[in-house]
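re: ur question from yesterday

yeah so i grabbed the chain u mentioned. its 136 aa long if i counted rite. heres the sequnce exactly as i have it in my notes:
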Amino acid sequence: MIVINEANYPIVSVHFGNASTLADTEKYLSYFDKWLSFNQKFGLILDQSTSQKQKDQVKSDPEQIEAIHRLTVEWAKQNKDRITQFCLGMAIVYDGDDLEKRKKAAPKTITGIFGCSGQVFTSQGEAEQWLLSRLS
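ran it thru and got these structure tokens back, copy pasting raw so excuse formatting
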């Protein structure tokens, strides 16, 4: 399940719960499309942090993960020009065991797929500060 928070627009956040589904991803991408349609600069926080208990309960379906990845990459490819123009950055909040690996890979991956800047942070506050600095 995902939770989308637009209360602090132009900083918006998407919290990905236990295991995202294809339907969750479609919902997230429809919101992303809406934010792009405003033709205004905005920043996006993707909160992928979970408690250890949640991590232990998650059962990953490789086919579902692949379908989500394909959908996201295809959507990003179709919308890359608009993303580059209006998305000031994607800040990922993450607390997994491979944090350092993700911090290193994320900027290049996000830029390559989406066409905007990206960073990984350990807290929502850090992510928000980074995006606010890019808005000014």
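noticed a couple things. The domain at 2-135 is CATH 3.40.50 (Rossmann fold). also Helices lie at 22-37, 52-57, 62-86, 99-114, 124-135.
anyway ttyl
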